[in-house]
Design goal:
Elements: H1 3-14, E1 22-28, H2 36-47, E2 51-57, H3 61-71, E3 75-78, E4 92-93, H4 95-100, E5 105-109, E6 112-116, H5 119-129, E7 138-142, H6 146-158, E8 162-167, H7 170-183, E9 187-192, H8 195-202, E10 207-210, E11 235-238, H9 247-254, E12 258-260, H10 262-278, H11 284-298
Parallel strand pairs: 1-2, 1-3, 4-6, 7-8, 7-10, 8-9, 10-11, 11-12
Antiparallel strand pairs: 3-5, 5-6
Helix pairs in contact: 1-2, 2-11, 5-6, 5-10, 10-11
């Protein structure tokens, strides 16, 4: 049993969840698969905090947000399909979350609900933790959906030199290119996602980011990039975290490229949430250990 989980259970048995215990939650639909309760309860226990984290399957967002206010829930993680819908029920939205157009983290400050996105910041922490510096990087991003939006705006804020976005949904791609271009001082270009365009973009890139679900369990033999295009000097970051080492990362590593797993982004976005809710530094190693063990058990 993970040490953090064991500590949480010990606290629950001997101290009890009391009227002073602060509650955090994740809302989504479906929600049964979520690893967030295991991650955050282990982190709270490791830090000795009187917090508990639960999961709620939510269909009615308006009622859920009223419940957050009425029950004094301290913090909320928001997952699909509610990241956009929650915004109209918040009192304040962080600038990056507003630009991205989605919220995955809510902090309840005395009844005032404040929305954030931890995905972009989590991605930047994951890159730097893996020895990859986004500032000044020439980036090739594949995908233009929600994860791509969060990471693209974060790259703009971190001072990336250029961003080529390859997508297969034309309207979504055009909107992302337009929005990032207007908000950040970096060169942004949108391209159709074909093998020839990927090859041309990678030839002028320092960092490749896969923001698509290609390679995710159970279709683990798929990759967005042919193995022949990987090379030393190219860093490769895959937001897919199950499996932790996707085919994309394995082939990049074999070619001498630096790699960053989506597990690190998953962990770091949870770290950002923990620190927003508690005001304390997160026990990153404990949280990472829970994710690795959970993924191992599920696979």
């Amino acid at each position: 049993m993970p040490s953090g989980t064991a500590a949480f259970l010990k606290r629950s048995v001997h101290m009890g969840v009391s009227g002073r215990t602060r509650v955090c939650a994740v809302i989504g639909d479906p929600i049964e698969h979520s690893m967030s309760p295991a991650i955050h309860n282990a982190a709270f226990a490791e830090k000795g905090l009187d917090y508990v984290y639960v999961a709620f399957r939510v269909e009615d967002v308006a009622s859920a947000m009223a419940g957050v206010r009425g029950l004094g829930i301290a913090g909320v993680s928001v997952t699909v399909p509610h990241k956009l819908a929650v915004i109209e029920y918040l009192d304040e939205v962080d600038g990056q979350a507003e630009a991205v157009g989605s919220v995955n983290t809510i902090v309840n400050r005395g009844g005032r609900l404040c929305g954030y996105t931890s995905d972009g910041r989590g991605a930047m922490l994951a890159l730097r933790g893996g020895g990859v510096e986004p500032r000044g990087a020439r980036v090739c991003m594949i995908g233009s959906g929600g994860a791509a939006r969060a990471i693209a705006f974060a790259l703009g804020g971190e001072g990336a030199a250029s961003l080529r976005i390859l997508g297969i949904v034309p309207d979504e791609l055009r909107a992302l290119v337009s929005d990032v271009s207007a908000a950040a001082s970096l060169a942004v270009e949108g391209l159709d996602s074909t093998e020839s365009s990927i090859e041309a973009a990678l030839a002028e890139s320092d960092l490749l980011i896969n923001c698509t679900p290609v390679g995710m369990h159970p279709k683990v033999d798929a990759s967005v990039v042919p193995a022949r295009l990987h090379r030393p000097g190219l860093a490769v970051f895959d937001v897919v975290y199950n499996p932790a080492r996707t085919r994309l990362l394995r082939e990049a590593e074999a070619a001498g490229a630096a790699t960053v797993s989506g597990v690190e982004m998953f962990v770091q976005q949870a770290v950002v949430q923990f620190e927003l809710w508690t005001g304390q530094s997160a026990p990153v190693d404990v949280m990472r250990g829970v994710v690795v063990r959970e993924l191992g058990a599920r696979s």
